[in-house]
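name: query_chain
kind: protein
chains: 1
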Amino acid sequence: MDNSTLEDTATISKIHFITTKPTGEECGELCDSAETDMDIGNTNDFEVAIAVSDYDTERVGYGCRIFAPGTEYGGIIGDIESISGTRKVALRGRTWRGMLEYKVVEPPAGQDHLTLSGELNTVIRTLIGDRFGGLFVVPEADTGITVNNWRVDRYATLYDALQKLVDNYGCRLQICYVQPEGLEYGYVTVQAVPIVDYSERLEYSQEEGIYVTVRDCRNGVNHLVCVGEGEKQDRVVLHLYVQKNGTIGKKQYYIGLNEISAVYNYSSAEADKLEEDGTKRLKELQNYKKCKMTIDNADLEIGDIVAGYDAVTNTQVIKPVIQKVLKIQGGKTTIDYSVKGEDE
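structure:
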């Protein structure tokens, strides 16, 4: 059981972006000259390059929104660069998901943790609160899932807190820009929805005429020496080992020539935190499988599960989508999907 990565590239019909004033009033579609690179799930940011002749501070200035209606693609412009050599202007900013990464959830005064209970979307609504004014809205949709005494990690980012919450209850975070009828101002919906498992009915492989490349790496780290707080002989040291089935434990399985070791230095960590973070690190370093594919007409969301298969190596990868990168260049729109996680 190894770490695995699956990457898809989907060529789709052009996505149309709309811009707004900083107040949210729509200004029409983004100019045809725009070249877009938008990352959702990893860096959670975007860059849009337009011709200098198309630059308008009211439509694409600081604080202006850019969005593709009914999708998660969008964000707020916060970084502008004029590139005189190319006669272009680069518009950059954080996506809606990225904006969640720049809010911090603090424990209430006098308490060790913020503890929440209630229907899942209601809990999400409590976590988001009024941090974004009226821009982010949690729909009144009942998931049928009840959260009981959920402890939020101390000083976690809002995004990490939300992601950990929905992961725990087997859901994904759905983010979408909505254009309400009769209103000039749109808003971003954030809610928990069921994960769609495409692997049960669809498996991408060469047999469908899809280009598939599989890499199976079996020389990853299997012994991680974790070093925490303290000095010299009093330093906290923890040994973590990859087991035969790919899980992480404290009993060594691989020895001699098969042992591959590395050091994880976290000088401020106590034993419990050292074990938690060391386990995450070892999962990143251990054996892995990668499957890269080029497919057409895919429409996947962060958290959905997909499968890829290579007949030559008889390798199957079944993983949730963790990243989408949308690119628009020369009128052609593509979306790269990446999937990574520990085999079940």
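note: DSSP finds five helices and 25 strands in the chain.
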